[in-house]
Amino acid sequence: MCGTCGCDQTARTAQTVNDISRLSPPRTEQRRLQVEINLMAQNDHWAALNRKRLDKAQCLALNLMSSPGSGKTTLLEKTLQALPGSFPVAVIEGDQQTEQDAERIRAAGAPAVQINTGKGCHLEAQRVSQALDQLLPAAPHLLFIENVGNLVCPAGFDLGEQRRVLLLSVTEGDDKPLKYPDIFARADLVLFTKTDLLPYVDFNRDRCLEFARRIRPGLPALSVSATRGDGLTEWLEWLGQPG
Amino acid sequence: MHELSLMESLRDILEAEAVSQQFEAVQVVELTLGPFSHVEAEALRFCFDSVMRGSVAENAELRIQWQVAAAECPACGHRCSPQTRYDPCPACGAFGLRIESGDELMISHLEVTP
Question: Which residue in chain A is spatially nearest to B39 when comparing CA positions?
Answer without folding.
Answer: A153
